[in-house]
């Protein structure tokens, strides 16, 4: 199949909307990452998403709708969830809500809940309006790879496997949506994102954060969110995170860099803009500002993909505090590193 790369004008959006109604797959920009969309009520179309991504069938999809009203046909919304939706939607938040029978089981892997999101990106919204169908859409990458934040990333992974990709430029948030399970007595964040637990507390009395957000699952531990089971966001090279006091981190990063060079490896350092001068002479990539974790969120996946394109074998990265959006950044970075972390203060 030839995959069309479309600029987001009305004519092209109509073309893509028709393709969705037809049961085909469309790559669409959202404020978080690019999605691989299909009509959520069309079982065959939803199966095609899993096939195109190589996604395990037990990892449920998020269903995108334009409004709370549209969500109501798919799930039950109590007063507490409605409050959250009215405050944060449209936006980078996904709510797990009790599912109605109309949603095919293939969408939510047979679980009692369905994941619902109302995106704010104008292109995604127009496409949802024009198609008139709820759109199941996971990130538009090959399963396991860093999520796509540009149309080119989607092309690189999935060209030939979908009808079209709508090019909406770079994604503003850059990390996948916050996932909150509203079916629990205490609403629980299963995946951190642009909407932080503190922000959620402005409309909820209590918010829990699944403690597996920053660590691997223990043996035999059941994943609250099936997506947490899988290796994720990983570059081809081996990434290791270096934590500790600023000076110790910089010293160790440079030492490990020199050792990797000696072993004839292609090596790259990931550092915050504030620390770049410390790595002069090294192959160093800026991953944003330590003071503004949003800037790291926005470019993290692109930087990981670029390291792949440059054939980097070994990567070492600075880390930031797991607070605010920093929690989402550290969740993705830890998984990309397979939780490999060195404490520079202990090493020294
Ligand atoms: P993605 O589609 O790649 O953004 O991933 C969606 C995430 O939401 C994955 O981690 C899923 O496991 C999680 N998810 C979606 N629906 C459910 C559900 N009904 N229960 C638990 N987790 C879910
Ligand atoms: Mg994904």
Fold and architecture overview:
With 348 residues, the protein is of the alpha/beta class. It folds into two domains: 211 residues, DHBP synthase (Alpha-Beta Complex), CATH 3.90.870.10; 110 residues, Rossmann fold, CATH 3.40.50. The protein has an eleven-stranded mixed sheet, with helices on both faces. A five-stranded parallel sheet has the order 14-13-15-12-16, with helices on both faces. Helix 1 crosses helix 6. The site of adenosine monophosphate has 19 residues, from strand 6 and strand 10.
Ordered list of secondary-structure elements with their pairings:
Layout: E1 4-6, H1 10-21, E2 26-28, E3 35-39, H2 43-53, E4 62-64, H3 68-71, H4 79-88, E5 93-98, H5 105-108, E6 113-117, H6 122-131, E7 135-136, H7 151-158, E8 164-166, E9 178-181, E10 188-191, H8 197-200, E11 208-209, E12 238-243, H9 246-262, E13 267-271, E14 284-286, H10 293-309, E15 314-318, H11 325-336, E16 341-343, H12 344-347
Parallel strand pairs: 1-8, 2-8, 4-6, 5-9, 10-11, 12-15, 12-16, 13-14, 13-15
Antiparallel strand pairs: 2-3, 3-7, 4-7, 5-6, 9-10
The structure holds adenosine monophosphate and magnesium ion.
């Amino acid at each position: 199949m030839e995959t069309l790369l479309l600029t987001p004008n009305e004519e092209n959006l109509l073309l893509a909307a028709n393709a969705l109604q037809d049961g085909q797959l469309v790559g669409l920009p959202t404020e978080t990452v690019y999605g691989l969309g299909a009509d959520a009520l069309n079982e065959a179309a939803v199966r095609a998403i899993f096939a195109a991504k190589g996604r395990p069938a037990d990892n449920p999809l998020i269903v995108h709708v334009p409004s709370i009203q549209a969500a109501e046909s798919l799930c039950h919304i109590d007063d507490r969830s409605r409050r959250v939706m009215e405050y944060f939607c449209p936006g980078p938040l996904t709510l797990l809500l009790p599912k109605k029978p109309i949603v095919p089981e293939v969408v939510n892997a047979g679980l009692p809940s369905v994941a619902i999101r109302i995106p704010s990106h104008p292109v995604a919204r127009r496409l949802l309006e024009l198609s008139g169908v709820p759109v199941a859409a996971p990130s538009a990458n090959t399963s396991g790879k860093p999520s796509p934040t540009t149309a080119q990333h989607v092309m690189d992974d999935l060209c030939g496997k979908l009808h079209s990709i709508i090019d909406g430029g770079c994604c503003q948030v850059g990390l996948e949506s916050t996932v909150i399970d509203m079916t629990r007595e205490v609403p629980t964040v299963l995946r951190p994102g642009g909407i932080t637990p503190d922000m959620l507390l402005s409309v909820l009395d209590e918010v829990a954060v699944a403690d597996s957000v920053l660590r691997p699952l223990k043996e035999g531990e059941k994943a609250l969110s099936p997506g947490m089971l899988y290796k994720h966001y990983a570059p081809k090279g081996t990434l290791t995170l270096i934590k500790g006091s600023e000076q110790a981190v910089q010293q160790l990063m440079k030492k490990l860099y020199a050792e990797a060079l000696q072993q004839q490896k292609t090596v790259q350092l990931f550092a915050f803009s504030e620390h770049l001068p410390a790595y002069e002479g090294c192959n160093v990539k800026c991953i944003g500002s330590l003071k503004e974790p949003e800037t790291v969120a926005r470019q993290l996946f692109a930087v990981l993909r670029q390291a792949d394109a440059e054939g980097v074998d070994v990567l070492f990265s600075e880390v930031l505090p797991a607070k605010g959006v920093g929690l989402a950044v550290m969740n993705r970075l830890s998984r990309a590193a397979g939780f490999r972390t060195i404490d520079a203060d202990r090493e020294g």
